[in-house]
Amino acid sequence: xxxxxxxxxxxxxxxxxxxxxxxxxxxxxxxxxxxxxxxxxxxxxxxxxxxxxxxxxxxxxxxxxxxxxxxxxxxxxxxxxxxxxxxxxxxxxxxxxxxxxxxxxxxxxxxxxxxxxxxxxxxxxxxxxxxxxxxxxxxxxxxxxxxxxxxxxxxxxxxxxxxxxxxxxxxxxxxxxxxxxxxxxxxxxxxxxxxxxxxxxxxxxxxxxxxxxxxxxxxxxxxxxxxxxxxxxxxxxxxxxxxxxxxxxxxxxxxxxxxxxxxxxxxxxxxxxxxxxxxxxxxxxxxxxxxxxxxxxxxxxxxxxxxxxxxxxxxxxxxxxxxxxxxxxxxxxxxxxxxxxxxxxxxxxxxxxxxxxxxxxxxxxxxxxxxxxxxxxxxxxxxxxxxxxxxxxxxxxxxxxxxxxxxxxxxxxxxxxxxxxxxxxxxxxxxxxxxxxxxxxxxxxxxxxxxxx
Length: 453
Ligand SMILES: C=C(O[C@@H]1C=C(C(=O)O)C=C[C@H]1O)C(=O)O
Fold this sequence. Notes:
Elements: E1 14-22, H1 27-33, E2 39-42, E3 48-52, E4 56-59, H2 65-77, E5 80-81, E6 94-98, E7 116-120, E8 123-127, E9 132-140, H3 145-158, E10 172-177, H4 181-196, E11 202-213, H5 219-229, E12 234-238, E13 245-250, E14 253-258, E15 261-272, H6 277-289, H7 291-309, E16 313-317, E17 321-324, E18 328-338, H8 343-350, E19 358-359, H9 361-371, E20 382-386, E21 392-396, E22 400-403, E23 407-416, H10 422-440
């Protein structure tokens, strides 16, 4: 397929989609059974989805990429041939994501990751709702019901769910940083000076690690461990080409659209977890009461409301609260709305929120480009799925990493405002690496270097 042109167009192309029940299996059971997937997705209150191969793949570059992906996917989904009685949970869905910047080049570690890429899986397994289903999708002039049915039967015959528990972590040989502690201090100090000078209000600066593993990366093990520790998070793994896998367990919903109901929220401002319940409560109390954290958070809430205003109505802000995860706690404000817009239009309106970009957005993006010494690629960008009716869910790809055989590159960042302290922000970033590092470290002496845990 020509990645610039998006979907190869074929006259009278049809999308044939059929579904069959499988023996029930967990998400990792599916992953251990059917081989290396191209997409994995699971979200709170949603089924797990694993996709193999592509009935169709759409890609698009530049600032218009959201609309282009939608148009190209709609062209495929428009010709859907699927029995009305087929289970809705197993309907065909496009899964994938976008790069953070529209000028993404897809080079270096991001080789194989276009500016956006979504697949309609050839084989799509959904599980986690009490039943496990396989859907086979085929698109193009050669798509036939007979071939689809054959593949369905073939998957069912091969399907003997393997529910073994994860092996012990692969271990870490070495860890290098994209940004030293001294460089970070300079970056944060220069940025707070720009903020004080009035150039901008807030910007999220990030960094990355290069981790070399002792044993090869196992996606089923990584997904299982992340699911055990972060059950309330959005777990994803995306491999748009034969190259690296981008995966993670993000706490941040960018947006869900289900019928006209829209769910989003502001997740910003971070402290660690206490060693004791008292210390933990004290940290949460500081998070709630500190004017620095409230400002850092409230600019995100206000901006998301503005971002939604053009694409949604009945925008309502819930109560700000503390959201506790394994190693950090965040301020979180839920936001709901109503909209007829396609979820990709909502994604376009919301990306990036100042939880991962900044304010004003253009100035923040400029500071990010001028300051960061690594390529964000798909980190902190929208990942998720959409269907034919324009429903879908997107997470912000945080607590994430790029992985190939024995190398992993985790990413993490922190919101910088006028009174940010470089050492406090450094410590916050180290905590945000933990979800990924804990998947790989054996606990036997491997650390990220400076004992900053
Ligand atoms: C940038 C990250 O997290 C984001 C930034 C936060 C902050 O600045 O407090 C909190 C949650 C996320 O919106 C990350 O995890 O890498």
